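User: I'm curious whether this sequence folds into something compact or stays loose and floppy. Could you predict its structure so I can see for myself?
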Amino acid sequence: MIRDVEARNAGAKGLGVFARRDFAVGEFIFRRRHGKVVDRAGIARLTEEDRMHLCELDWDRFAVLLPPGCYLNHSCDPNALRSGVKVFARRPIRAGDEITIDYRLNEFDSNSWPCACGAPACTGTVVGSFFALPPERQREYLRYAPTFIRREYRSRHRGIPAHRCS
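Assistant: Here's the prediction. I'll summarize afterward.
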């Protein structure tokens, strides 16, 4: 049981994850849980609901996130970061605040979608790729990014792409 957070209505965004207590910068909030793990071909066999809650694990493996972690909403200026399955406070979070993460942290050449996060720096569209982030945000997030993103980042900064999409 995750006692420090709860999933509840987040308005137009649907369900969200909310803090039940205050969290300090860097503090562990909770562990996200994975359900099914599928390859790219397996995505087509998932339900629409499961496809809405996918997380990229590497180039060809995806996990269906389970509650409450599947209800973490995106923000272009999140108050939390995830590293693997662990979620940490990026800045102070007060009891009652919605906990948000930046979906681009573990995305690579994904689709774009409208953003409703409301952050001052929000452009209104999320480009689903770590590499679409501004360089300073990439540097901030890099230590939290999955291994496949870190490898690609290092390769790009050496000028040789580590992966080519097929």
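Summary: The helical segments are 48-52, 135-141, 147-158. The mean pLDDT is 89.
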